[in-house]
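Posting for a labmate who doesn't have an account.
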Amino acid sequence: MSKKNILLAVARISVISLLISVAVLFLNVWLFSSSKHYAPIEMLFIEGVLFIIGGVLLLLGRGGINLWSLKAIVLSALAEALYDTDTVGPSEILRHDKWKPQGFVRLALVLIVSGVFMILIYFINMALSP
């Protein structure tokens, strides 16, 4: 990839993340403006942390284990538990799978950057408020 394509991808992720952060802020103001217990900006901090955690979990994915192998592992473990016989175990099944991350990388990056923007908005607001 060229540098121009990389910068364009980073710019897209940043703009989408900023738009999501601002939309969540306005949604918080609309939902929590009459609340006595929670301020909209405090909820933005909590949502930012949740966005970062969700993004990291999406980035990890399922570790490249395809769904057919996962079903075979469960069935072999179930057969071994029920019938007490030697079956093809999970280690033999997983030996055929390669470790390839299959997470949702772009969505995860958007969520992580959105969470960072939300936390930055929170700290900027706390620094500017009296």
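Reply:
Got it, the structure tokens are right above this. DSSP finds five helices and no strands in the chain.
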